[in-house]
Specification:
The chain has 383 residues and is of the alpha/beta class. The protein has 12 helices and 16 strands. The chain starts with a helix and ends with a strand.
Length: 383
Amino acid sequence: MARKWLLALLVACFTIVAGCAFAADTIKIGYLAGLTGDFAAFGQAERNAAQLAVDEINAKGGVLGRKLELVPYDFRSRAEDAVNAVRRMIEQDKVVAVVGANSSGINIATAPLVNRGGVPQIGTLSTNPAVTVDEQGKVRPFTFRICFTDPYQGKLIAYFVAKDLKKMKAAILYDVASDYAQGLRQFFVDNYTKYGGSIVADQGFRGGQDVDFRAQLTQIKASGAEVLILPNIGKDLALPMKQARELGMDQIVFVGGDGYGEFMWEIAGKAMENSYWINHLAPEDTALKPFFAAYRKKYNDECKEFANGVLAYDSMYWLADAVKRAGKADPKAIAKALETTRGLKLLHATITIDPATHTPLDKVGVVLVAKEGKSMLFKKIKP
């Protein structure tokens, strides 16, 4: 009897230990987000949306019989913090992949680290080509993006300004310290001049330092520009717009890219009205309604930075699909599965990845117009 009792006890203990071990055997995915600093509004939306996706996937049984575990880090809007965070994810947390950031400069900084470490990273709104392709034009084997790139975005802006707005004299105000801004500026110029447009003013500033843009704006006003191109991010978009209107630049039209954020209304106010923004998706898209409803239910809040939220959410589903197709939670196998993604239906788009650039092929661009305190769909474009 004592022997049977001891055997039963050992079996029970083994079952408890094994169960705990199984529960702890999650698939860890790092998330790189700017939760504080200049990118905070974007980063918080991304982290929340990614966690929402993880919870949904886990509720349906996880991937390969294991639950996903999100391991988020705050890069505090600084490249050095991003590099340290990714190093810790790889070396200490043993993540199988990293999602984020939403910034080209941040992902360019972390690219050498993830490629040396052999751990795939997906950028959400990292549009600079150098994120996934190195200086020699070779694809970085472990770096991917879910968004379109700046060459395409620059073409979309140029096409819209020249063909739809029919504005043929443009000024540019851009952050000289930003990889994103520099790239988008150049790709706009290259395409706009082909459409017959002229650059009548080209002014720079240093993001994160300059807050008074009146000197640059005064020169832009004197140039006779019909449209002001703002290839920047967040508050570096909103402040110049506000100051331009204060200088009496009432007729000039503001056009920018996917650096737009809903929080800009708090800074620029009415100066935002009737400005145009090239983006990856529109909040009115009916396919996105389930996401917004689920986000609202989970966080008792609206996903105001909708592009960041949706692309973070879809990135997690894309990664989960890659892990499933890889058949194992192995970073190298996952990277190969990401690269060979074909016709994957996500919430905002169906994506096929170009193996030469690790970028989705042929994504339709969206033009948003800012009206009555929010952005709304103006039109979809594909030059």
